[in-house]
Amino acid sequence: KGHTDRGLPVPDTSVDVVTLLAVFEHIKERESLVREIFRVLRDRGLAILTVPQPIVDNILNILIRFRIADGMSAEEHHRFDPGLVIPIFVQHGFFLIKHARFQLRLNNLFVFQKRNPSPAG
User: Fold this and answer.
1) What's the gap between Cα 45 and its chain centre?
2) SS3 of residue 61 by DSSP
3) Which of 57, 83, 89, 111 pairs as cysteine with 98 (C-beta 3.0–4.6 A)?
4) pTM above 0.85, yes or no
């Protein structure tokens, strides 16, 4: 089994862990991405991601305005609601292992595990 032309150049069920650190909020086709993560992960594989709280956009804009931060893509966050992460992953065959807030509760850590489709798993 291989990948599609639009997917990752990785065979099906060949990866143990996928990490998305401050990436998910920038993706427009989130459901397609989650399906692709499910495809490449082995049974019981992990998807680990961080997603900032929407207020971080305001903080970044202030830091950019005062030239304290540069090169940030705050406009790509689309004020993404981290509350949508769990339903998107669960809908596509994952279960939540951990959700925690960190960095003054401005950031979210999510750890999902791919469900084993077999009854023995």
Assistant:
1) 14
2) helix
3) 111
4) no
